[in-house]
Structure formats: C-alpha cells, structure tokens
Amino acid sequence: MVAEDIIIKPLLTEKGYDGIADKKYTFVVAKSANKTQIKLAVEKLFNVSVDSVNTVNCKGKLKRMGRSSGYTPDYKKAIVQLTADSKAIEYFNSLS
Fold first, then answer.
1. Is the model's pLDDT at 96 over the cut of 70?
2. Quick check: 57 and 26 in contact, CB under 8 A?
3. Torsion angle, alpha carbons of 62, 30, 10, 40, to 10
4. Strand partners, 75
5. Is 90 exceeded by the pLDDT of residue 63?
6. Does the pLDDT value for residue 70 go beyond 70?
7. What pLDDT, on a 0 to 100 scale, did the predictor assign at position 1?
8. Could you say which of 56, 72, 73, 78 is the most buried, measured as most Cβ atoms within 10 Å of its Cβ?
9. How would you classify residue 47: left for phi > 0, otherwise alpha for psi between -120 and 50, otherwise beta?
10. Is there a contact between 6 and 30 (Cβ–Cβ < 8 Å)?
11. Structure pTM?
C-alpha cells in the first residue's frame, strides 16, 4: 500500500482538537493498515517523527429514513502521537 492510500482523511472532533496541543493527531485510515504502516505513512506524508500509534475500529451508526434503516460504513481511526522534538503538522495548526 502507498502512503496516500493508508491515510484517508484527518478526523476533526472536539476531542481531537484538545490533543493538538500535545501533538496528538487523529486520522481515518484504511481498515487493512497496521500500526507500522500508519507510522511510516504519517512520517512520509508530513515529514514528522512519530512516537506511537493507537488504533480503534469504529462501527457504523444506525440511521433511519422513515421505515427503512441502515448503517453508516465502519471505519478505522488512528491516534498518532509525535515525538517531543518533532515539528507540528501545519494543517492542524491553522485549525486550533
């Protein structure tokens, strides 16, 4: 897998904004990617040094439209902790 295929998009939530000051960033990643692949992809795409990666498999929520109901897609979330001497990711600096 290529680094661009592993990191799908940043996940911007209230809890995610609180982690930006501590250099913790949250991404939606490919479901088949493991922690090592996620670490290498973030280091390649953003030119930073990654300390640790935590992953969570998130189930889709039940949504209803009248009588019919269905689930939103499942996804995998990765919380990436950068090292103390690493530079911050510029994309997230403009948001906080």
1. no
2. no
3. 160
4. 58
5. yes
6. yes
7. 85
8. 78
9. left
10. yes
11. 0.90
Six token digits for residue 87: 């530079």
What is the per-residue DSSP string for the chain? --HHHHEEEE---HHHHHHGGGTEEEEEE-TT--HHHHHHHHHHHH---EEEEEEEEEPPPEEEETTEEEEPPPEEEEEEEEPTTSPPPHHHHTT-
* Separation CA 19–CA 94 (nearest Å): 14
C-alpha to C-alpha distance for 39 and 53, rounded to whole angstroms: 7
Q: Which amino acid is at 73?
A: P
Task: For residue 25, give both structure tokens.
Answer: 């960033």
